[in-house]
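#onboarding

Welcome to the new folks! Below is a worked example of what a typical request in this channel looks like: someone posts a single protein sequence, and someone else replies with the predicted structure as tokens. Don't worry about understanding the tokens yet, we'll cover that in week two.

Example request:
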Amino acid sequence: MSLQVIQPRIRGFISLTAHPDGCAANVREQIETIERGDLQGSLGTALVVGSTTGYGLASALATCFGYGAKTLGVGFEKAPSEDKPGTAGWYNAAEASRLAKERGLTYRTINGDAFDAATKQEVVDALKGGDFGPVDLFIYSLAAPRRKGADGTIWNSTLKPIGQPYDGKAFDLRSETITTASIEAATDEEIESTVKVMGGEDWMDWLQTLASAGLLAEGARAIAYSYIGPEVSAPIYRRGTIGKAKEHLEETAPAADALMKQHAGPSAAAWVSVNKSVVTQASAAIPAVPLYMSVAFRVMKDQGVHEGVVEQIVRLFHDQVGPGIEPRVDEHGRIRLDDREMADSVQVVVAESWANLSDETMPLLADWEGYKEDFAKLFGFGVDGVNYDAPTEVDRPLNA
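Example response:
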């Protein structure tokens, strides 16, 4: 037993604490949304890499609690200790596993570096161990700051523009004021390193590992998540180092699709799904993005088309990639879940608001309070019904 009173310690885009009860409540809320989502059919085994937070978590929950899949996730989280709580992702996975066991379902998380060959082997062993079997659905939702190669080489992802420096609007999360950010252009080495970390190479490595082990079920599907975003953030995002990595991921899809068909039959397939912007710890670090999101969320809420993470994933499965459903793709073969965000009816208003943003107009043009609430909830804070003054058990098992 390790009871602690845990208060939020949020510094800019970093939270130093996570609340187990708040994280658990968030997971239960996502499952309730999934259960209302009218997901039809069933799945055998689902593997989700990057399963402990964000889109990966919502995907793992949807496969298990929406389709009854035997779900195996991979995350890289910090376990709780006697004097410190674990990370939010640890508590998310712990609650999902507890609820799954309670309902007679299978939900397990392997905690390790997804880039590491040892983690991949642990996944292979688990799939072959009798509880799971060959993979019917593989979701790749990995967002990582660094990657270590088999030979010890370390690549770090970099958030920089390409070709010329970035000078544009940003938001100081500490003082909550609009500022101007200036970021120097990336070097060729920084671009290459970012692609190594966040491009499509590791996605293919995972697929090849599963194929070599005979763990792709007949007709299996693979989906990797990407993001494009609007013109206002393009200089720092889509036309920057991160965007170059996302382009590489998307360009990897044809080879991934060919591999799937070779090893899992002609009905097998691989796609990239371009999702909408959502609040994450990673996106909060991008200078223009929190400001853009707060404006876009205001516009989308006003127009009744706003979606959170789990609503996006429910729509992905319900309309695009659920059992027996063939997705609608754009001219580049991508699923476009960002269609509502990128609609002209939204982006025209966003652009007008962006041009008129100031500290004085921000309360009218942006939903900054909503952004902050979403950010706090990532770590289990600001959740209705949670007593943050009461001690809570922080030592919770990752797998029930």
